[in-house]
Amino acid sequence: MIAAVTLGSNLGDRAAHLDFAIARLAALLDNLKASRYYDTVPVGVSGPQPIYLNAAAVGKTTLSARELLDGLLAIERERGRERPHDNAPRTLDLDLILFGDAVIVEPGLVVPHPRFRERRFVLEPLAEVAAGLRDPVTGKTADQLLLDLRAL
Prior knowledge:
This protein is of the alpha+beta class. Helix content is 31%, strand content 25%. Helix 3 (120-130) packs antiparallel against helix 4.
């Protein structure tokens, strides 16, 4: 199964947090391909926050979506991720964006990620590493979704 994960950090050594996550993701995803890092302004947060560093990674996995999510959460914890409130600043944020052509709605796990189509900080790095990866809901590729978003 092909999985797409986005990475973000806006606390501490942001690049080191993303480097760490990519190294750890290589144990969960075969043929891992990661985008370059993008500086992005915080979106959907309350109050001022530091600039984010974002990236995307794709690879193949034999894990279930739930097992992969559990692995992502473990990597976040290793980097000191705390969740004092929604959209709080973070050392590391890993989101499961796509999991093959699966559409999953379970407690704590929704794939495709519900807001990824409206987030440039997700679609730009995703289109860089997997332009042809399809959203199973719209049928559009990452590249097409990015073009749609830029047209707004």
